[in-house]
Fold these 2 entries.
Entry 1:
Amino acid sequence: MKVSYFPGCTLKTKAKVLDYYARKCAEVLGVTLEEIENWQCCGGVFTTSTDEVATKLSSVRALMNAKSKNQPLVSVCSACHNVLKQTNAQVKNVADFDRAVNNYIAPDEYHGETEVIHYLELLRDKIGFDKIKEKVVNPLTGRKIAAYYGCLLLRPGKVLAMDDVENPTIMEDFIRALGAEPVIYSFRNECCGGYIALESKQLAKEKSNRVIENAKGKGAEEIVTACPLCKYNLEKNGCADIPVVYLTELLAEALGVKE
Amino acid sequence: MENKNNVCKEIIRRSGVNPRKCMKCGKCSGTCPAYDEMEYHPHQFVSMVETGNIEPLLNSKSIYRCLTCFACVDRCPRGVEPAKIIEAVRLTVVREQGKNHLKPDQIPELLDDDLPQQAIVSAFRKYTK
C-alpha cells in the first residue's frame, strides 16, 4: 500500500527520529510513505476563523497533491495532522472558505476530497493492531507506558473524529499491541502548554508538570507522544524524570528495527 | 458607539459563533488550562462580545493566553465554541498595522537547543498576522 506523507518542519529538524522510524516501521508493515513533493509548513496551529485563507493554502496544496494520486494523506506530527484535517473540513463544510480557497488555486479545484489520517489511524484502520501484534518480534512485556494525547491529536472531536475525545483508546490499544501495559490517567488529554512556552515558561511548566505527576502517580514508567512540542514541554519545562518517547520509537523497538 | 458595534459584529461573523447560545455555566473557563493567567476568562469573552463590551478584551493580554487546545470547544454543553471568539478578538488586534504581538527579532533570545520549530511557527501563527 502507498500513501501520501506530510512530514512537517519539525520532523526534518528536531524530531528526525519521529520521521525516521515512521518510515522504517511503515515499510516493515508493508506501507510506503510517499513524501509530498515541495510541501510547505502547515503553520503549526489551525486558525479557526473562516476569513483567514492565505495561511491555510500550504495545507490545501498538500491535500490537493494527495488527491491527485488518489491516496490518503498521512502525517505523524499531531500538529500537522490537526491543521491538515481541520483545513480539509473547512474547505468541505464552509462555502465562503471553499470559494476563497478556489479563487487562489484556480484553474485547479479542491473541495475537501482527500482522506486525512494520522499515523495511528493508519496503524489501526488500514493495517490493524492485530496485524501489528503478529509482526512484533520484541514485545515490550512488563513496561508501564502512559499515552499522552495532549490536545491536538483528538480535538476538536467532531472534526478530528479519531477517537472518543474524553475517553480515547487508540494509543492504549497501540501500547497493548506492542506487548506493554497502558497506564490510564486523568490528564492524558490535557494541554502541555504548547507554544505558550515562548510567551510564559511558567504556564508551560505548570501544565507539563501536572501531566507528568499524574502519569507517574498512576504508575507510569515512561510516556509516549506523537507531538514534538509535547515532548519538549514535558522534558524541558516539565522536567520529566521518566523517559518521554515518540510512538514510532516504541513501534520500531517492538518490530525489531530500532537502531 | 457605531464603530464598537461594527467591531463586535465583525468578531461574531469571523468566529462563526453565536454567543447567545451560551447558558453561562462556566464550563469553558473551568476546563481552560490558561485560566490562572487570564484577566478575562473564556465565558467572559463570550458574554462581553455578546453585550458589546469589547474594549477591555482588545486591550487585555488574555488574548495571548489561549493555547488553542480546543478543550472549551469540545466541552461546551451548548456548542458555543468559545476559543473561536477569543481567536476572532485576537485577530482584530494583530491584523492592525504594527500590532504583531511577536517580532522576529525577539526569537533569538527565546531559542534553546531543543526548542522545536513547531513552537516558533505556532507562536507566529497565533501572535502575528
Note: The mean pLDDT of chain A is 97.
Entry 2:
Amino acid sequence: MHFDHSTFRRLCDARGLLALHADQPLGIAEAARAAGMSPFHFIRQFEALFGSTPHQYRIGLRIDRAKRLLASRELSVTETCLEVGMSSLGSFSTLFHQRVGVTPVAFQRRARTMVRVPGRLPTALFPGCLSLMGLLPAAAFQPLHSRNFREAKPDPPSLG
Amino acid sequence: MRLRLTSIMVNNQDQALKFYTEVLGFEKKHEIPMGQYKWLTVRSPEGPDELELSLEPNANPDGKAFQEAMFAQKIPVAAFETADIDADHQRLSALGVVFLSAPQAAGPVKIAVFSDTCGNLIQLYQVVV
C-alpha cells in the first residue's frame, strides 16, 4: 500500500484532531469528514498507518489522561472517568485495567502513597526506562550465567 | 565498547512482536516478562548474529509526544538494510504495509519509508554501488 503526501498529511491531522478533542464525543464520522474520507475508508487507512483504529487511539489517549489525573489531582475515579470523556464507569474501569494492568482505584491508591512534586509525574507511574517499568529485581542485573528470570522475585528495586 | 543492542519504542509490544517477526521477518530473541511489560528483542536471520533490536514499550507521555511528532514530520527513527529493496517493497506491500515512498535512488543507496504500525516510520535502504 502506498500513501501519497496528502493522504498521510490528512491522516496525521485527523489523529491530531482526535487528540485535541479526546475528552469530547467527537464522532469518528466527523474526524473522517475532516480528513475528506468516508468513515469506512478513514478507519481502514488510519489503522493501516498507525496500527490502531481511531476509536482505539482515542481510548488510549483517554486512559493516558486518566492516569495523569488520578496521579496528580484529587478527583475520584468517577470524576476522572467523566473528565476524560467517558460516560460508563464500568467500561472505563475495564479498559483502564486492560491497558494499565491495574484498576483505576489501585492505580490511584499507589499514586497517593508516592511523594508528589507539583508539575511533575511520579516516574514510577510514568516510566521511560524498562528497568523502572518492570520494577526489575536486582537479580536481573547479575551476569547472564547465574541469571534465572523465572525465579527472580519482584523485590522493590534500588534504582537511582 | 561494542554495539550489540539498539532499541525502538513501540505502542504495543505484542503487536510489535507480530509485525517485526511475521511481517518484517525478524526472529524473536528474548521475551522476558517484566511486570506489565517485557524485555523483548528480535534479531535478523540475515545477521549480524550478535545484534539485537529491543522493542521497548512507550509508556512515557513525553516519549509518546516525541514519537508522534517525529512520525508526523515523516522522520524515520531507524533504518534497516536490505539486499533487494524492490523485492522487499513488493512483499511488504502485499502484506498491507503502508509505504510513504516507494524505493527511489538517493546517491549511493536506494531508499523507501514505511510505517511499522507501532508508531514509527522505518527507512529501508539498499546500497547500490
Note: DSSP finds eight helices and no strands in chain A.
